[in-house]
Amino acid sequence: MKKTIRRVLVMSILLAGLITYAENGDPKPAMEVKSINTERFLLSVKEVKSTTSIQLIDVYGYIIYTEKLSVGVKYRKIYDIANLPMGKYYLIIKDKEFSKKYSLVKNNDKLIVNIDFSSQRSENKMIATLTE
């Protein structure tokens, strides 16, 4: 009986914590990557809090594009990948404190963007550095 009451109490506390966290969550994420069409995607960051690097790599780990973002700016950019063949690519966004990895799957009819939770490690092989 005591174990059951203890379990119910612990589950109630956990549920209350989850509800509180869900209600206080930011409805607009600090960073967003979304597909625009089959050849372009948008990366937007509310505020760059530390020097941040952006890399676009292919499935073999070759770096296709790299860019550094300065501290204190809002960032919004549309990336055009029309010249890349169909397939899977990774967008890696890193700063001193965190790293996020997105997978981009380019097909004939759409560009699919997902957060990638795999732990594949890629080598730093540079093909080209693109600039505007």
Please give a structural write-up:
- The chain is α+β, with helices and mostly antiparallel strands and 132 residues long.
- The protein is built from 1 helix and 9 strands.
- A 6-stranded mixed beta sheet has the order 8-7-6-3-4-9, with no helix packed on it. It has a 3-stranded antiparallel beta sheet with strand order 1-2-5, with no helix packed on it.
- The chain is elongated.
- The chain is 17% helix and 42% strand.
- The C terminus is likely disordered.
Unreliable residue stretches: 23-28, 119-132
- Kindly estimate the percentage of residues that lie in beta strands according to DSSP: 35-45%
**Order of strands across the main sheet:** 8-7-6-3-4-9
What is the end-to-end distance? 68 Å
- Total strand count, please? 9
